[in-house]
Design goal:
Layout (H helix, E strand, L loop, with lengths): L7 H12 L3 E5 L17 H12 L5 E4 L1 H5 L4 H14 L6 E6 L3 H14 L4 E4 L9 H4 L5 E7 L6 H4 L2 E2 L7 E2 H10 L8 E5 L4 H10 L5 E3 L9 H8 L6 E5 L1 H4 L8 H24 L1
Parallel strand pairs: 1-2, 1-10, 3-4, 4-5, 5-8, 8-9, 9-10
Antiparallel strand pairs: 6-7
Length: 285
């Protein structure tokens, strides 16, 4: 619980300036896609992910392990080791635990302990759909980032997020707009809030940035999901307002059928470097 010297948003600002990067590498291990020497061996999850971290740590703004990809293989201890490894070899790079937790009371308190005490994450993704009291237990961890789902990258997200509400806003507002207003306003008591907005919806991303001009935006969907990296940066990045562009499979598995884990990690580095440069160029456009 004592990890942050800088807050999550301060970490992002410092790392963006140092690494000149908007890239977040998502750590979603799938043993069936590991290098041939480790193919199908869940005991190698830490080794695989640590190899990616070591190969890309100077290129990234953040790392984002997805908890289900570890828990499904009974690899929670490997996740603990991995986050500790990131803190050791890249202490300036924040770790976003992608868990999308959403509950109230003692359950939320224990989810918060899990993320910030057990795993030592610097930020956590959360579902806001049970309201403010479902977020309050996480707010007690000063300096940690709370990144709430807003307009997600999946096609079905619009089933709820793009529904128009009856409100005092002229013409009404969509649910994702309401979430953005709350996160940028009354929910942001400790300056901890951020928003998840998919790269697959650049217009909505631009609207969220308009409503939340200073919040960090975590933007999945670039790479395998088809989001446009340049459009994402143009819509979401502003000086002093971080955009964290996440790519997972396109980087993790760039090595394809390579047998040697070191060669596989080198391919991941090359893919991360190319994506970083693309994002950096778009920022300057």
């Amino acid at each position: 619980m004592s990890r942050p010297v800088l807050t999550f948003t301060e970490q992002l600002a410092a790392t963006e300036a140092r690494a000149q990067s908007l890239l977040c590498v998502g750590l979603d291990p799938e043993p069936a896609r590991f290098p041939l020497a480790w193919r199908g061996d869940a005991r190698r999850i830490f080794d695989f992910c640590a190899g990616i971290v070591d190969a890309t740590r100077d290129l990234v703004l953040a790392f984002k392990p997805q908890i289900a990809h570890f828990a499904a293989h009974r690899a929670e201890e490997q996740l603990e080791r991995l986050i500790a490894h990131i803190h050791e070899v890249a202490p300036e790079v924040p770790v976003i635990l992608d868990a999308k937790r959403g509950d109230v009371g003692s359950t939320a308190e224990n989810y918060a302990r899990e993320a910030f005490e057990r795993y030592g994450a610097d930020a956590l993704t959360l579902s806001p759909f049970m309201g403010l009291d479902s977020l309050e237990p996480y707010m007690r961890y000063a300096g940690r980032g709370l990144i709430v789902l807003c307009r997600t990258s999946n096609p079905g997200g619009g089933d709820l997020q793009a529904q128009r509400l009856v409100s005092d806003v002229p013409g009404g507002e969509m649910l994702y707009e309401r979430i953005a207003r709350l996160a940028a306003g009354e929910w942001n008591r400790g300056g901890q809030m951020g928003l998840v907005v998919g790269a697959t919806y650049p217009r909505e991303l631009a609207r969220v940035r308009e409503l939340a001009p200073r919040l960090p935006l975590l933007v999945p969907g670039v790479g395998a999901q088809g989001g446009d990296a340049e459009a994402t940066v143009r819509a979401g990045w502003r000086a002093g307002a971080p955009v964290i562009v996440s790519s997972s499979r396109a980087i993790l598995y760039a090595g394809g059928e390579q047998a040697d884990p070191a060669v596989h990690a080198a391919a991941a580095r090359a893919a991360a470097s190319a994506t970083r440069q693309l994002l950096h160029s778009a920022r300057g456009a």
